[in-house]
């Protein structure tokens, strides 16, 4: 039997002390960095506001709101937080977890869980579009776009309850009046699902996906679409991390590429007016591409900027005036319409709290397009504002 020498015990004890010192040293350094580093109020990568430092008072201490908010504050601001969260997400994926924050993790993409909607809200939106069409003496088109979940959910190893988007589109279109032209882009996107028609890390379609919808819409909207080969395609960015990444911080999926589709002879000068606050002067640009956003996380905003109540594009081309009632899928879609209209106005009902008639002169327009993706339309409660008088 081996006798443990006093020197061995002493060495072991020293190692334990040194280990404790190193551990607590790292802990203290980590804590000090967390305490004294500049605090951000918004996380671009996660696309969310960060908790602010709570104020201590007798009331907030005894009702526990101080400790609850302090816990959230520390969680939002500890040093290296995003790296740790990415590591956590990677470990969860490695052990077989397929859903993180309502997002499914597939082999080469992330897709959104799209559940059954509240059909009473859906019916209100349908009614509002029908009334809008009746009130205005011009053609009205409806384009309801399936999301990536519809075409890639079969790649999940197990069945997850999802909205059947084909059936949902049929339901909405069947409720619309006959004089509203229904534009079906489902088959156009389905037949190209093996192409790059949806971003891997974001909820939007790509410019290529928007092109196929633009080509499919030409016959009903009365324009002759350009061939795909007509365009000069610019790869504007290959480091786009979208909204699905923000919800999961999963790094197993490759960053997305963002493309701009240009006229072969160069883009014509345009005037783009963005109205953020009614009654104030619009922000004016000479391009539909806001390249400054390529340097930040939200690169999709490089199409017409961030969401705004009203955006007007004066193209300088021949053609009528088009009004688009839309979600953000219309932003990259608009780049294909500029050759066919002299003016395009996009309104986002989420940011309009009064009647649209009070902010635009509807009689100026020759036609209107209602463009939404299935997920946003299924959860929408703002289209009913079209009924405001």
Task: Walk me through this protein's architecture.
This protein is of the alpha/beta class. The chain has a domain of 272 residues. Helix content is 34%, strand content 18%. The longest helix has 31 residues. The model has no long low-confidence stretch (mean pLDDT 85).
Features:
389 residues; three-stranded antiparallel sheet; 15 strands; globular
Q: Report the major sheet.
A: 8 strands, mixed
Kindly state the number of beta strands: 15
Average of per-residue pLDDT values: 85
Give the helix/strand class: alpha/beta
One letter per element, helices H and strands E, the order comes to: HEEHHHEEEHEHHEHHEHEEEEEHEEH
Beta-strand fraction estimate? 15-25%
- The shape is globular
Unreliable segments (pLDDT under 50, ≥5 consecutive)? Answer: none
Helix percent band: 25-40%
Alpha plus pi helix count: 12
- Side by side, the strands of the main sheet go 7-6-15-13-14-12-10-11
Distance between the ends: 95 Å
């Amino acid at each position: 039997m081996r006798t443990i020498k006093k020197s061995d015990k002493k060495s072991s004890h020293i190692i334990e002390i040194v280990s404790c010192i190193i551990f607590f040293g790292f802990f203290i350094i980590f804590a000090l960095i967390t305490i004294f580093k500049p605090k951000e109020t918004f996380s671009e990568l996660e696309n969310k506001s960060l908790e602010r430092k709570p104020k201590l008072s007798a009331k907030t201490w005894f009702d526990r709101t101080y400790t609850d908010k302090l816990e959230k504050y520390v969680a939002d601001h500890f040093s290296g937080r995003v790296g740790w969260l990415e590591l956590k997400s990677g470990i969860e994926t490695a052990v077989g977890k397929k859903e993180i924050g309502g997002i499914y993790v597939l082999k080469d993409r992330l897709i959104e869980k799209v559940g059954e909607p509240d059909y009473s809200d859906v019916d209100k939106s349908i009614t509002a579009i029908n009334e809008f069409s009746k009130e205005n003496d011009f053609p009205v088109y409806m384009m309801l776009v399936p999301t990536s979940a519809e075409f890639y959910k079969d790649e999940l190893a197990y069945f997850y309850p999802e909205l059947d988007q084909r059936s949902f589109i049929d339901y909405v279109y069947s409720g619309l009046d006959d004089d509203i032209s229904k534009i079906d882009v489902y088959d156009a996107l389905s037949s190209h699902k093996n192409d790059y028609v949806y971003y891997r890390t974001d909820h939007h379609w790509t410019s290529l996906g928007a092109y196929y919808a633009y080509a499919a819409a030409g016959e009903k909207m009365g324009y002759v679409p350009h061939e795909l080969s007509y365009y000069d395609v610019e790869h504007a960015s290959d480091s786009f991390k979208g909204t699905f990444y923000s919800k999961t911080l999963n790094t197993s999926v490759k960053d997305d590429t963002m493309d701009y589709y240009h006229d072969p002879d160069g883009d014509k000068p345009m005037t783009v007016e963005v109205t953020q606050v009614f009654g104030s002067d619009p922000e004016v640009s000479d391009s539909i591409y806001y390249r400054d956003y390529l340097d930040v996380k939200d690169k999709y905003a490089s199409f017409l900027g961030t969401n705004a109540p009203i955006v007007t594009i004066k193209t300088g081309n021949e053609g009528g005036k088009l009004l688009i009632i839309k979600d953000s899928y219309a932003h990259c879609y608009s780049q294909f319409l500029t050759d066919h209209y002299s003016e395009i106005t996009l309104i986002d009902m989420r940011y309009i709290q009064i009647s649209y008639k009070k902010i635009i002169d509807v009689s100026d327009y020759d036609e209107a397009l209602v463009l939404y993706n299935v997920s946003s339309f299924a959860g929408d409660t703002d289209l009913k504002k079209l009924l405001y008088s």
